[in-house]
Prior knowledge:
CATH topology of the largest domain: Rossmann fold
CATH class of the largest domain: Alpha Beta
Number of strands: 18
Number of domains: 2
Mean pLDDT: 88
Strand content: 15-25%
Radius of gyration: 29 Å
Strand order of the largest sheet: 11-12-14-13-15-16-17-18
Largest sheet: 8 strands, mixed
CATH architecture of the largest domain: 3-Layer(aba) Sandwich
Number of helices: 9
Amino acid sequence: xxxxxxxxxxxxxxxxxxxxxxxxxxxxxxxxxxxxxxxxxxxxxxxxxxxxxxxxxxxxxxxxxxxxxxxxxxxxxxxxxxxxxxxxxxxxxxxxxxxxxxxxxxxxxxxxxxxxxxxxxxxxxxxxxxxxxxxxxxxxxxxxxxxxxxxxxxxxxxxxxxxxxxxxxxxxxxxxxxxxxxxxxxxxxxxxxxxxxxxxxxxxxxxxxxxxxxxxxxxxxxxxxxxxxxxxxxxxxxxxxxxxxxxxxxxxxxxxxxxxxxxxxxxxxxxxxxxxxxxxxxxxxxxxxxxxxxxxxxxxxxxxxxxxxxxxxxxxxxxxxxxxxxxxxxxxxxxxxxxxxxxxxxxxxxxxxxxxxxxxxxxxxxxxxxxxxxxxxxxxxxxxxxxxxxxx
Length: 392
């Protein structure tokens, strides 16, 4: 058996012998494309927002023949800006200056819609997903150093529809402390959108955070349901199933699980476009339950004989809601009916005709027309103007 005294000389001899052998170079495996060892791809930053509010969009598509930028709300984009391919296979286009706000977009790569692979921010519609870019510069909806509430994605089972559904709920700063009750505001989206739209492209959470921090709006819970109950197609019914789900499932769910008041003076309901029509349908069918109604870029569809719902079947909307329209007691508890529509909106005549109808029946309606058309650029502004009027 070797002792420590005998091991040391043997170890030294082995080292000496090793030093006499030539060095050996181990061959490295050849680089293989697709395994992270191939030629480096050009860096792609997209979207890139500059201090002057110009936005550059980029996508790596070296084999594409044509790429366009899609995004209807982006001013100056029109039907879709053509993008230019660089020698490195990166396509890009710069737009702007773009007004502050949140904008949806995607790329059309040889006719195939593609979300931006370099941008993790997205916004859901009813049947597809968009990439999302936020251009800062508007205090009322920017992310600011103020107390922030939370937006939760809530799954529930709708007994009235027999399937699982989803909604989003904003709770104001301090809600988690477990103290006190809050008024509740139900906020509805438009056609082809989803329950995630108001809190993503609509910036609803940040708008409420900023209003509450400035003491312009009272802290409130905001419930944003899914207004579609299936695929949306123009000319098909869009409201009956949702209204059943809203009254039978959503209202009880919210009042059971959230610390909200359960009386008329502390409930508000508003929506944009399709959601505005749903607001009128629900609000005037259950006028004893809501003290505040808001209609953004909308009205009674079909009231002018043109546009969505232009050929209604059966009794008119006025005839269906005759009892509520002429009920003097219900008018007494209704604190606000508020309309706003862009002058270039394709539903502006629908809004005007609906306001005239309500005034004919003795309702005190606040109505204003803004610049612009049927876009999120207006709807975020309308929320910022409407919310401070609630629950005061």
